[in-house]
Every structure is written in C-alpha cells, then in structure tokens.
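=== Structural record ===
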Amino acid sequence: MPADPRAVLTRPAPKPDRTVAYGDHPDQVADLRRPAGDGPARPLVVVVHGGFWRAEYDRQHTGPLAAALAAAGYPVAQVEYRRTGQPGGGWPGTLTDVLTGVAELPALAAEALPGRVSRAAPVLLGHSAGGHLAMYVAATAPATVAGVLALAPVADLGEAYRRDLDGGAVAALLGGGPTEVPDRYAAADPRGLVPIQTRTVVMHGSEDQQVPAEMSRDFVTAARAAGSDISLVELPGCEHFGLIDPESPAWPQVLVMLRSLHDDH
C-alpha cells in the first residue's frame, strides 16, 4: 500500500529553537529554526502554512518541512496567524496578520538568532492557502518580500469560490462570495492583483485533489501576460501534500526552486 500522503501533517518534528511574537494575540507568533552549519547571516525563509485558512490547521504540520529547510542551511520562521473559526480570523485579520508578520520577522529573527539571520527581505514559502497569503503579501507589500515559492497555491479566490474548494473555505475567509463582497475579493485575490513584480515560482502537482493544478496553470498564464515575474513548475504524479513532505519524491525539486529564489538576493 502506498503511504498516506497526509502522514506529513502529523509527523513529529524537532522543537523550534525560539518562538517570537509579532503581535499581542497568541496566534501572532512564529517558530524560528537556526540553520545547520556555520556561515554568514542569511535571509530568512518564512513558511506560511495552509489548511484553507481554517483554525483546525496550524503551523505545527509544517514542522517536518521547516526542520528540513534548517538542515539544508536556511534560517526558517514558521509564521502563525489568526484563522477562520476563531476570534479575529478571516477578513481582514488573517491577511493583516501575515502582512505584519512578514514585515517584522526578519528583525525579530535577527535578534533571536544573532549572526545567523540577516535583516534583508525574506523569501516566502507558502503552501495551499499559505501560497495565496504569500502572493497576497508580495502583491500588496512588495518591499517586504524578496521572492515567493508558492506550493499548490489557492491563486484565484473567485475560481476557488466557484469550485467550492474545501466546502466554502473562501466564503468563510472573506465573508461571502464575489457578488456579495466584491471589494474584499478585489483586495485579496491574487488574480486581480497582477502584475506581481516579486519573483514568484509556482509549483503544483498534476494529481492534486485539494487544489486543482489547472488553477495554477490559468493563473500563471494570466499573471505572466500582465507582466508578472512568474513561472510554473508542474510535477507529474505529485499530489497536494507531497510538496511539503521532505520524504516525498517532489522534495528535491522544491529545494532546487527555493535555492534559485533565495540565493539570488
């Protein structure tokens, strides 16, 4: 029997080195991991977790990914944020939390892990709903982001609403559909925020059952036509969770794409 692709969501990972707060709410925090080895301070990789923005999914399920990134020599911050189903989550708190966290984490991490983290703008690695949030931050606060690696992102909120991904997840985030709260879609949907000037790589598995790969194909085509610095890497045979699993066949390619974004600045 093939391994359960969701196993990574509950796989134990080493505890982070530090946890820092970027706000007063208990979920306005980030777990920091020190990069393996020695060397100069490097820009942070901020991991933005997915879970369709819902409260039942938190940063813990990206522990194996974050630990693997740290083992590969990257300083890592797993940012948490308020999510739908909890006070302050949804519109606009989920989005403003990630905006604030991304802006403040380089300095917070540089102080918490002295000599290992530079204060330069970070690279964002976002998965699923976290891919949406990473591209949203890059589009609305480009000075705070050096690059985006979007793994199976929910890149088109209008289309995700029409497809009813995860049973109303987008409506829960924004408080309704595109005809009910059009201003919120205009402000939050990457499809309407192109061109995104921050260099972005979208990776998507062809066998994704949670976020169809077709959505990324269509988004990248439209974003490139609008002048975005964006490319698509589609992985044949890969499903949704393989992109965040260091034990999956997709993982080496994820590392290659991250290196191309991270080492260019």
